[in-house]
Specification:
By secondary structure, the chain is mainly alpha-helical. The protein has two domains: 194 residues, Fumarase/aspartase (N-terminal domain) (Fumarase C, Chain B, domain 1, Orthogonal Bundle); 309 residues, Fumarase C, Chain A, domain 2 (Up-down Bundle), CATH 1.20.200.10. It is 54% helix and 6% strand. It contains 19 helices and nine strands. Helix 9 crosses helix 11, helix 9 packs across helix 17 and helix 16 packs across helix 18. It starts with a strand and ends with a helix.
Length: 513
């Protein structure tokens, strides 16, 4: 049980809730702060003082005065009108992250929501009742209004949810699990919608998946280096130390651990027919620590940005009770620029892991550069194409990543009758991150197949202790490609499923530890 409002969430604790269904509860401190702010908003609303989103309309309608007696209708209409997203629904993990981060932000007592309403969201998360949220509709300011509106529809008795793997009417599921819908009061609809939690949540899921890919890329990259009998000089810890890059040091160490005991790494042409005695390997091998390491450093940076944001108050307006100076103040904490820019950075790093992986696959399948391996890694080339076309597929995926690589945070289209005239487009950055993660998982799956094929063709040589385990795991799921071609999409799908299952990243971590 994680107590919300006692300590800040971390990437690790949030991951337990999002991916492992850890239960949460609002702390006594959080409940006190929530109710204190809600009481203050109620007083302000009844005082006759214009308060944005409480006694006025929203956005360009900010000059429209709303009678306090219409408070509930105003807040419900806000949610209903803003729930107009399109496209595929976000994955359950992204929705869980959204819910958790919104709960955490609202628990800090600067939003004006009541404990009773917020606890509905807590119950939904704990009971696995996940709203259906379309992926397109947010421009990343004024908050992720559209996706958060979809997230909150069930709270007021509308929308569909996913429960135990089935899509059902929210009212029906609420009745089944014993959750009562809310009767909203002053500012509650606005408090639920106005924040950066949708693109932060999607970005968090992408970040989590990328962490596994970083370990997989070191392991599979080591297999590729070994398959072409590459050199380990470039991984010498002394080289890494003088560059002073944490990620680089880690990746180099990982590769060396994978190759412990290898008879292929560093072998000369006298013992390996077809090998050329080069002084240095290609960049895709020699510069692996620098490229993979830089991507590891990006992970660390973006994790810090997202961890800050998951604990931030991103409402507008924000509520300060009298002991804090008093006032319901309009600001711009809903603007997603800090996270949008970080996620644009992240998608570049994810894409780079795929880019260098494809180059290693290309090297292994090219008989001019594969150090004696047969063309396209098949025993009878010409009659068979072997691993020729999987490298094409990797190249296609790399190009698709390039088309998604434009920094969305550089774009802006004015909304709300030009009142909201600069937006972050953070949701686009986040969605692109997830798409690029899928592509890179497939690119690494292809390299895994190709590197494994290359190692199996090096008969008679002992391979590294770590790469041997990775090859054995692959062969438990995908057989060696013998002479005859067959539809390799099946092999790629099996390798992708293996990577997605977490088994390869778990194996990598065990080797690296």
């Amino acid at each position: 049980m994680i107590e919300i409002g006692s300590v800040d969430l971390t990437v690790e604790s949030a991951g337990k809730v999002v991916f492992e269904n850890e239960q949460i509860v609002l702390s006594k401190k959080a409940i006190s702060l929530i109710e204190r702010a809600a009481d203050y908003v109620s007083i302000q609303a009844k005082s006759g003082t214009p308060v944005y989103g409480v006694t006025t309309g929203f956005g360009a309608n900010r000059d429209q005065v709303i009678d306090p007696k219409d408070a509930r209708q105003l807040q419900e209409k806000l949610i209903l009108s803003h729930a107009c997203g399109v496209g595929q629904n976000l994955c359950v993990e992204a929705v869980r992250a959204m819910m958790l981060f919104r709960i955490n932000a609202l628990s800090q007592g600067y939003s004006g929501i009541t404990h009773k309403t917020l606890n509905i969201l807590v119950e939904m998360l704990n009971k696995g009742v996940h709203p259906e949220v379309p992926e397109i509709g947010s421009v990343g300011a004024s908050g992720d209004l559209c996706p958060l509106a979809h997230m909150c529809l069930p709270i007021i008795g509308y929308g569909s949810v996913t429960y135990k793997g089935e899509t059902r009417c929210s009212k029906e599921v609420f009745a089944e699990v014993g959750i009562k819908q809310a009767e909203l009061t002053f500012k509650e609809g606005l408090a639920l919608l106005n924040g950066t939690q949708a693109h932060t949540g999607v970005g968090f899921v992408a970040l989590h998946k990328f962490r596994a890919l970083l370990d997989i890329s070191d392991l599979v990259g080591a297999m590729s280096l070994e398959a072409v009998a590459g050199r380990t000089d470039a991984f010498d810890p002394r080289i890494q130390t003088i560059r002073r890059r944490k990620g680089q040091i880690e990746s180099a160490k990982n590769v060396l651990q994978c190759l412990e005991g290898s008879e292929l790494a560093n072998i000369g042409p006298d013992k390996l027919p077809g090998k050329t005695e080069y002084v240095q390997d290609s960049y895709c091998l020699r510069c692996l620590p620098q490229v993979h390491g830089a991507c590891r450093d990006v992970y660390d940076y973006v994790a810090g940005v997202i961890e800050t944001e998951m604990n931030a108050v991103t409402d507008n307006p924000v509520v300060f009770v009298p002991s804090e100076g008093g006032g319901v103040l309009s600001g711009g904490n809903f603007h997603g620029e800090p996270v949008a820019m970080a996620l644009d950075y992240l998608k570049i790093a994810i894409a780079e892991i795929g880019s260098i992986s494809e180059r290693r696959s290309a090297k292994l399948t090219d008989k001019k550069f594969s150090e004696g391996l047969p063309a396209f890694l098949v025993k009878v080339p010409g009659l068979n194409s072997g691993m020729m076309i999987p490298q094409y597929v990797a190249a296609a995926l790399v190009t698709d990543n390039k088309t998604r690589g434009f920094p969305s945070s550089m774009d802006s289209i004015p909304t709300s009758a030009n009142m909201e005239d600069h937006v972050s487009m953070g949701m686009h950055s986040a969605n692109h991150c997830l798409s690029v993660v899928v592509n890179v998982t497939r690119i690494l799956s292809i390299e895994y197949l190709i590197a494994g094929q290359g190692l199996d063709l090096r008969e008679g040589f002992k391979i590294g202790s770590g790469t041997k385990k990775a090859l054995e795991l692959l062969r438990q799921n995908v057989p060696f490609l013998e002479e005859d071609d067959h539809p390799l999409h099946q092999d790629i799908e099996k390798a992708e499923a293996l990577l997605a299952s977490g088994q390869v990243s778990a194996l990598a971590r065990a080797i690296f530890s």
